[in-house]
């Protein structure tokens, strides 16, 4: 399971052992929503840029191709030819993001599919069954992600229901892991802390889910409308009530600066669409801030995206060529940009791990943030 190697302040350096290999933490999980990284990046590319974990979306894979089909094909690891750990989210975020297409009840949530409009019912048992069919390494509990600034009365009811759903998820996963036809009988369940930006609800919920002694815990419901300062405050008050000897996962966050701030507060796991989404639009991460490669000033620029980067793109291609590809709507341009950004994130996490090991994380964080603030060049 999880071994805490060392700490630097609250920052944790650990290793999480799974049936699909060890995860060195802190870690960034590359988002492959529909079992693929958007931008024509293959699983072999992910290996080349030292990706540790791929994250896939339960709801989207249930809609297509269908989790039963993935099971017949051997689960996500066989389907995608990715042998390292995979985390599947639960479909719970779609309860939030598809607000106009769903109806929440104690049993679960009824969706209208965003693809063809057909009705889909998903509750804790359905989510666990789908994730078991997908055979991911880590399955997330089915929860509701309430808007960060929702009324206290709504958040109280939502969090209480999310806790009841977590119990049902745990019981269903135990049942599925004991069944004959289950592909991954060692699938692990992470619980999710919710509570908006309300300190007391966050803390009480953290205490309750910690008592269940799950393999890991996530903090959800952030980066959904609150400020960065409010998000950091929630981490300040919540993380101390989650077990130090288990992974802490901040869901859907974030920018390199967000990651540095959260690591300092004791977070181990991260995921975000920023490196892929921004990359597809020509927004590239460097240690000297983001650059927009579409800008005309790069038309004759023969430097790599970043001169201190050793990614497969920076080793061989110029800013001028990458800019041309994007301007010409060539898919290769998007692929190059996404590859660079994912490599940047993975390398940042490796540097973070080394800084914690060497007990110089605070100075490392300050230097990185100063560089990021330089902005577009």
TrEMBL record:
Pathway: tRNA modification; tRNA-queuosine biosynthesis
Zinc found in the keyword field: yes
Chain positions recorded as Zn(2+) binding sites: 309, 311, 314, 340
Domain called tRNA-guanine(15) transglycosylase-like: residue spans: 10-371
Catalysis: reaction(s): 7-aminomethyl-7-carbaguanine + guanosine(34) in tRNA = 7-aminomethyl-7-carbaguanosine(34) in tRNA + guanine
Active site: 89, 271
Molecular function GO labels: metal ion binding; tRNA-guanosine(34) queuine transglycosylase activity
Database matches in InterPro entries: ArchSynthase1/Queuine_TRR, TGT, TGT-like_sf, tRNA_ribo_trans-like
Coiled coil spans: none
Keywords in alphabetical order: Glycosyltransferase, Metal-binding, Queuosine biosynthesis, Transferase, tRNA processing, Zinc
Subunit relationships: Homodimer. Within each dimer, one monomer is responsible for RNA recognition and catalysis, while the other monomer binds to the replacement base PreQ1.
HAMAP family: Q_tRNA_Tgt
Function: Catalyzes the base-exchange of a guanine (G) residue with the queuine precursor 7-aminomethyl-7-deazaguanine (PreQ1) at position 34 (anticodon wobble position) in tRNAs with GU(N) anticodons (tRNA-Asp, -Asn, -His and -Tyr). Catalysis occurs through a double-displacement mechanism. The nucleophile active site attacks the C1' of nucleotide 34 to detach the guanine base from the RNA, forming a covalent enzyme-RNA intermediate. The proton acceptor active site deprotonates the incoming PreQ1, allowing a nucleophilic attack on the C1' of the ribose to form the product.
Similarity annotation: Belongs to the queuine tRNA-ribosyltransferase family.
Protein name: Queuine tRNA-ribosyltransferase
Organism: Eubacterium ruminantium
Taxonomic classification: Bacteria, Bacillati, Bacillota, Clostridia, Eubacteriales
Name of the gene: tgt
